[in-house]
Amino acid sequence: MSRDPSRDNAGPYVRATAQSGGHVITPVFSNSTITGDVHITHNALGVSGHRTQTQTSDISSVIDKYKELICSEYQYVSEYNSLPGEQVLLSERFTQPLIIQRHRDQKEREEDIRSSSRSSDQSVHLNRLFDPDNHRISPRAVILQGNSGNGKSFTVQKIMMDWASGDLYKQRFNIVFHLKCKEINRMSGEKSLEEILSYSCSLTSDQISQVLQETPEKMLFIVDGFDELRLPQDDHPKSPHTDLNKRAPPEVNLCALLRGRILPESFLLVTTRSTATDTLSKLLKAPQRFTEIMGFSSEGVEKYFQGFFRNEEFFRKAYEYVKANETLITACSIPVICWIICTVMRERFSDGSDLTSGLETTTSIYADFMSTLLEHHCQGLSQSVPALLRSLGQLAEKGMLEQQVLLDEKMVNETVADPAGSPFLSKFLFKRRVHQEMMFSFMHLSFQEFFTALYYVSLDEKEFKEKFTNVCLKGHFVAVVKFLFGLMNEEAKHTLKRKQGVCVHPNTQNILKDWLFQRRDSLETLHHLFELHEESFVKEVLNEKSEVSFRFRPLRRIDCWALLYCGQCCQSMKKLILFGCDLTSEKLAMILPVLHKFEELKLDTESYSDVVTIIHAVLRGRTLSSQSVNIEPSLFIPELHREDLDFDKLIRYISVNLSISKELSSVRICIGRISVSEVTVTFPQSSIINFDWTNVFQEIQAWKEIDDENRDMPIFPLQSLPGLKKMELSVWSLTECRVTQMISFGENCPSLRELRIKCEDVPEDGLRLLQKSHTRPDCELTIDWIKYSTHLKISLTAGGFSMEKL
Question: Can you give the pLDDT at residue 31?
Fold first, then answer.
């Protein structure tokens, strides 16, 4: 028997040890009162308190059954809009979130709130949460902080499922319990920890009592939603109970578990919003580890879309649409936003609607997100929803006016009644010299802009006009103005009034519309119209605009979506200019369905294949009686930006003018060679709707790449142009070879009536051949020969050759 001197200040301590084969007679304490922790451990076979082989087998059987039930229950998830009995597989919805294992400083948080993408390079995998740190110390408690809708509960469900399946923590934890703070809040009366656990899982109190006899260092308790827990008002941390079986209010027993008073050797994983992290940290046992769930990385967003649709075509359409919108793709780092977008788009796919119709505006997605959080993450609000939204809007505006995304505690407390209870705000602690400083922020700058707009539309007519005129037209309020137009959508206004109690003044929309009529910026106008999403007003505005013009600034994919939507709303529009704006083949494909609706088009393209695509689109989709199309080589072709630019390189690119009318249409192709500079063909528009121009431009492109100026002209594919009436050529020299080619072309194209050539030289061999040639009776060849200062006209008909000086 020995005494442990290290415990002199902890009260009496008795330890009796027997050698192998020896005996110890336990001392008897009489007429004594013993306080403090008393542990009597038996390590001899057959002594009461030792776990027999049969007991161990029984516990293993209970745990195995528990795992089976967890797998059965946790393999499915119910979504926010699930009908009774409707569930989806967890594997189809869960995507590994981005988890970091450190606190971010003020600068990093500010950059993240303003940023448009996140990398997964520093993400911690779930199986590493309890790994030892650099000092080889493993945490007993892990805090998993995250904003509302960032996937904390989904992550917990995934941990439970993977543990039960044997894919996670197989060697580390024998048993994992899942406690939901929402459920603990609903428990009444006093309960022991065993009873709390039996309420939260499928095991009985007796089975849990058996399981808790397992080694505590092999137990993990997951406490989900600590920020929602109603903490005890009269808790006494200096004298808490340590009895596993003692009954107390459920939140008191939970706090005892968190502090390590009960089962101190066990492990804890606690999820919370940032607004409760500091409270949790003070309560939680040590050693602790802080982790933050950031939502999805850029790669995670794509993976989520792919898992949601499980159809490559639908996945690609939906993801590419969202990827085109910088605001939406940024917001998709929040898993709930991802779910909302995918759900709405799946509905569009199922009823055959186009992606640009319905609710896919940025404003509508943000409004749906707001409604989702208010309905599912705002229990126990201390104020009404309209009052909460108004205070959040006022706070957002203050930050916008000061161009701040990190908001100090004083400003927040003066504006929002219960900031800790708002799911739209995040709270952070920063080190400031020897002190801590508390700050708040919205989830992202775009949400701050949204709530600013929401506040403005709730104002009366006079206040709104003053805010809009004096504040909104400042440069950094551009996104706020877009949200204003989105909130003016009739369906959006109806939803705001019905669900959130926010009323919009009837004249607010008129103020915005009047302002839009005065705008000259075509690009922003289209985006405002897209957010408003009212077809009649789109028509009204675009009918007043003489042109839609994007010049010398990169055209984004979201710009193409806005142009497409506005174009689909109109029967016809006047003029579209896309010049010097990096119109790639991908972007061209997006706007192609509406190009035939513009009376005049001026575009620049990357390649001859894009030229063909445009010609096909306007000819085959023609709805206008007349249309003019001018296609130039792209100013973004890399070869055109080299310092050693060669003029010969420049002139290899093709430009095209297409003129369409009811009777005859024409295509003028500027080839850009001295030997053959351009060709123009005229034809009845109706006869060539299905003609494929690919071979024509392939032939021209191939001819341009070869430097032999005496080679045959690239006009052969034009012979098959249906109903060709007239062809005009500009060449440098009309050699014998080219005269032969022209006469042959006229003979093999029966619909051709006129062949006109402009040239600066007719060599003797070419002239001799012309003098002894003739054409078909219904076809005439005319040559305008400008020789120095002399202008000669040569005519070749069925009757023969003639030449006159003009």
Answer: 44
* Own/partner pairs, 462-467, CB within 8 angstroms, 24+ separation: 464/505, 464/508, 464/511, 465/511
On the question of a cis peptide bond just before residue 287, with omega within 30 degrees of 0, the verdict is yes
| First-to-final CA distance of the chain | 133
Please report, as a single letter, which amino acid is at residue 160.
M
Nearest residue to 14 (alpha-carbon basis) of 25, 22, 246, 23? 25
pTM, two decimal places: 0.76
DSSP code string of 344-374: HHHHHHHTT--TTSTT-SHHHHHHHHHHHHH
Mean pLDDT of 380-394: 87
Q: Answer whether residue 667 shows pLDDT above 80.
A: yes
Say which residue the tokens 């690919």 belong to.
694
Phi and psi at residue 100, in whole multiples of 5°? -110, 155
DSSP state of 334: S
For residues 566-590, give the mean pLDDT: 89
Nearest to 738 by CA among 755, 722, 725: 755
C-alpha span between 71 and 185 (Å, rounded): 26
Contacts of 700 (CB under 8 A, 6+ apart): 608, 654, 669, 671, 714
Per-residue pLDDT of 113-136, as tens digits, reads 777 666 666 789 999 999 999 899
Closest residue by Cα to residue 422 from 403, 446, 441? 441
Q: Which of 682, 689, 690 is nearest to 665 (CA)?
A: 682
* Cβ 108 vs Cβ 289: under 8 Å: no
Strands 175-180 and 219-224: parallel
pLDDT, position 218: 92
pLDDT at residue 439, as a whole number: 87
CA-CA distance, 292 to 555, in Å (whole number)? Answer: 36
The more confidently predicted of residues 187 and 647 is 187
In whole angstroms, what is the distance from residue 649 CA to residue 672 CA?
10
Q: CA 540, CA 509: separation in Å to the nearest integer?
A: 15
Residue 751 identity (one-letter amino acid) = S
- Average per-residue pLDDT in the chain? 84
Note whether 355 and 564 are within 8 A (CB). no
Report pLDDT for 11: 44
Q: Is 452 exposed, middle or buried (0-12, 13-18, 19+ CB in 10 A)?
A: buried
Across 402-539, where does the E strand assignment appear? 407-408, 425-432, 435-442
For residues 748 and 14, what is the distance between their CA atoms, to the nearest angstrom?
A: 116
Token pair of 211 as six digits: 């399981």
Check if the beta carbon of residue 230 is closer than 8 Å to that of residue 251: yes
Q: Write out the two tokens for 181.
A: 């703070």
In a 10 Å sphere around its CB, with 0-12 CB exposed, 13-18 middle and 19+ buried, how is residue 205 labelled? middle
Band (620; pLDDT cuts 50, 70, 90):
confident
Distance CA 127, CA 172 (A): 10
Q: How many CA atoms lie within 13 A of 470 on its CB side?
A: 7
